[in-house]
Amino acid sequence: MMASPQYSKVPDGGWGWMVVFAAFLQSALVFGVIRSFGVFFVQFVTYFNELSSSVSWITSVGVAVQQFGSPLAGALSNQYGARSVAMLGGFLTSLGMLLAFFATSLMHLYLTIGLLSGLGWALVFTPTIATVTRYFKKRRTLAVGLAFTGVGLSSFAFSPLFQYFVDEYGWRGALLILSGMTANLIVCGSLLRPIALKEDTDTVKAEDSKSKACLQKVSMLLDLTLFYHCPFMRLALAITLINTGYFVPYVHFVAFARETGFDEYQAAFLMSVAAITDLIGRLFSGWMSDLGKLRLVHVLFLWTLLTSVSIAAIPLGTSYPLLVIISTCYGFFSGAMTPVVFSLIPEIVGIQRIFGGLGLLQMIESIGGLLGAPLSGWLRDITGNYTASFLVAGGFLFLGSLVLCTLPNFFSCYSTSASNGQSDDSKRDEAKQLTKQEAESHCNTHIEDIPVKSV
């Protein structure tokens, strides 16, 4: 195994740009596929003659497993390295799509696409994004935003492309092609080069100085003490609420447009419009956030609130031009929100705990990912239309924005470290000296004052 390069500070570039490129491809082949799966949704409803709520569980199970499996991905990355874990995830993703080719029931699709490919997505996503954040600091939000532009580009291309595959080869043939496409995730994983930072040194020494019991080692790998980290848990609650409504348009927007009276290609084009503005939103958000004019928590609040409004406005799209405008707004605002979430995590837990923090956050928010689309489908089934579905989805994002207001010093325009002249690194060095009891007593202090002491 290649030795990890040693850095006294975050490099903010170098091989990190290759990691960003790998993350770009990974985001295209994971979330681009998830966002374009509405094309298959219509086919599955017709072929299996099932309710919308039942078919919605395919995507929801996949998203939930991807998120719920993230702590496992983080723990495996801590133990075996991000590269090996991501390559394994690519293999499982491709295998799940391949086995879905033989599906004869929805349960088969739940197990293959939902469970197997969902686990593969988890093993790919968490180590890749965590590695990106470890290579960057000053340009972290921009780097994450660039990585996630793969979602916008692939969503723009995949929705009509999948519709073409379905028309030409049927949904089984389309899944077989998709299996081959997602096998490229293995190549993406091979580009992840581990990096050793100065912040990691003290943690490693402390852990090597004493033997740990099995349960203690598991707790250390999963970083379970983050459950006592109050700002982290508040952020997790906010993202869970956001996640409940976030994916609803990508599951039901195409079906809503079809019910409104537009053909399948017009409906698919709406998702392509959202995808291209999603890409622009991610780049703009990354650039704006790294200017440092606004705190990241304020930027996240703004984009979340605007995304909430755009989702709730979807039922107002009674004409095609109006649907295009709403799709444009939703794509931009939702895309702008995503990179800020992942840039905010290291500010809260410290860069040396990013694998555990990202993993646990993904696990907690999986509750929203699991329930959001089926709840939307259930509301459609009992009301006969998608109006309540999109209004409730937007309401969940609005509640998430309110929870963000409870984060430390939210109503202050300046962070504590900026106001007292101390750098982030010096604040973290001081924080490491705090005990676990002191950490719990400081739950309501500013993010940068929260200790990042290792388990």
Your description of this structure?
The chain is mainly alpha-helical and 455 residues long. Helix content is 76%, strand content 1%. The protein has helices at 16-35, 38-48, 52-68, 70-80, 82-100, 106-135, 140-182, 185-190, 198-208, 214-222, 230-246, 248-260, 264-290, 296-312, 320-349, 354-383, 387-404, 416-420, 424-431, 436-441, and strands at 6-7, 196-197. α1 packs across α7 and α2 packs across α12 (248-260). It starts with 5 loop residues before the first strand and ends in a 14-residue tail after the last helix.
Q: What attributes characterize this protein structure?
A:
20 helices; disordered C terminus; mainly alpha; 455 residues
- Major sheet size, sense and barrel closure: 2 strands, parallel
Physical arrangement of strands within the biggest beta sheet: 1-2
What radius of gyration results from the CA coordinates? 21 Å
Question: What class do helices, strands and sheet pairing give?
Answer: mainly alpha
Shape descriptor: globular
> What is the H-and-E element order?
EHHHHHHHHEHHHHHHHHHHHH
- What is the helix fraction of residues, given as a range? over 70%
Strand coverage percent: under 5%
Unreliable runs = 416-455
User: How many beta strands in the DSSP annotation?
Assistant: 2
Overall mean confidence score, pLDDT? 81
Continuous helix count: 20
Report, as a whole number of angstroms, the end-to-end distance. Answer: 26 Å
